[in-house]
Amino acid sequence: MDEAALRELARKYALQNAVFFGGKANPGAVIGKVMAEIKAESQMSGERLSKVVSMLEEMGLIKKVSLEETEKVNSIPPAVQKVSLSLIDPSLLEKKEKEQRKGLPELVSAVKGKVVTRFPPEPNGYPHLGHAKAAIIDEGYARMYDGKFILRFDDTNPAKERKEYYEAILDGLKWLGINPDKIKNTSDDMGKIYRYAEKLIEDGNAYVCFCKIEEMRKNRSEGVECGCRNAGAEETKENWRLMLTKLAQNEATLRLKTNMQNINTAVRDPTLFRILEGEHPMQGKKYRVWPTYDFSVAIEDHIDGVTHSMRTKEYELRDELYFLLVKLLGLNKPELIEFSRLEMENAPLSKRKINPLIEQKLVSGWDDPRLPTLAGLRRRGFLPEAIKEFVLSMGVAKSEAVAQWEALESANRKILDPAANRYYFVADPVRVEIKNAPDKIVTDSLLHPDKSEAKKYELDGKNLYVYIAGSDAKDLRKDDNVRLMHLFNIKITKIGEKYIEADYAGNDKDAKKLHWVPANSPRAILHVFGPVFQNDEFNRNSLMVKEGLVEPYASNIQEGERVQFERMGFAILEDKKSMKFNFIHK
Ligand code: ATP
Ligand code: MG
Hints:
The chain is α/β, with parallel strands linked by helices. 36% of the residues lie in helices and 23% in strands.
């Protein structure tokens, strides 16, 4: 490739990048695109190696030329960029579908129309951002291949499942815009699951173990077989019957007979069933022997015809067990795909860590706006579209990286900024009395820079006072000349304990600007949140309550509406009666 061709390529991608991103192309992105195209070309023509070598030599040139072309493109007006790009190739003006679906690479052995995926949450708590990741990926793949997506409640522990949690999961998914093609419970299939257990017993592949938990653990780690293992099929059948009818919790388990010396300890005679007494929210007292995840997941995936079974990486060691069960029971063998567990900085992404916060009443409930639960994020003002974008931007990589809140916030901000109306909120208000103002003053400012609707106030100059924020008042000194935004300037004449006096001072737009609200402004409360965890412990300063005033026009804000408080950030109106807002983010 000669320099002229390279230049043409760089110009094309610089134009395209500029058109997609508000008129300014990112040089790094342009270099990436140019490199990718050169690479792709070299693969097609089969001259890979020599091309890669010469590409390295050209690297200096690629970078230089890309930077130069990016700079040129960025200096021309966006309208001209668009026209220039359409002259090269009008199809470049459209974002490719594949690019928009970033983060979901093609699946192995996926056939359009035949892919079946499932999301299997346990209804033992409210769904959180980690569940959103799994569900979005599971559903995303089903949609990508015109397949089927199943929501399967993995409800095999009567002591932990609750009706409330099934509903919370349904609510959370609905809010995310995830629509399962089928909803079912593992507990509906208990009869079938028992039959598979009986097959294992008949084939001599399972035994009832009476060892205590510690003993079992010790034997497993040392690779030692216990005596229970020697029971024949008939004896095991009888023991299994005792498990189903008489034996007490912790007295016996059903275990798979494998190899106690297997390098992978997860496959050393794993437990398949345990006795768990208790009232199940769906099945009542019908069953007292419940399968472990490892056993039920392989069977359920088979019953549901799952072709691509996805789970988080910590299950990787259990793939071997999954495939062993597939073999022993003659089940379908899906592709097992593992992705990394989502972790967020300073936030608990596990029901195990969230539960204690609720039990100890450190937060107000599962929907506390500080929590990374879907119900919490929703109250906090995050949009489901932002969550989807955030999750997909991380993709299905296995690599662990603690995600930053800033990434989710930035996805949310991108949606809110062009839509949220702007208002003034003044915290810890201080009254400012203004003398010598004109009799009648009319102010207006736009509700949003892209909208024509204005907020209009008529002030009576003869008896004029406004409120400014306590933090602004604190910095004022006598004789300061400051500008009240969209109004006029004032000169401070007196600073009292709880009020300020000032004189009207004409118009000087260069003076320091203060935001303010008029005399008849309603009270409002703003909840501002800090990280819920700090150094892995609950942050006792994670909720700050600010009281203040919002401008009168704010009475038009609807409950649930997201707005922008000027100079502060975005907030959502949670309760209209008390004008209580939750702060979303800057
Ligand atoms: P928890 O500790 O919150 O109970 P879990 O994995 O036991 O987590 P389940 O309800 O059993 O929760 O999980 C349902 C699905 O959601 C599983 O496939 C699990 O891998 C996935 N999942 C749970 N937490 C995360 C997370 N933080 N990131 C990605 N996926 C997750
Ligand atoms: Mg679980």
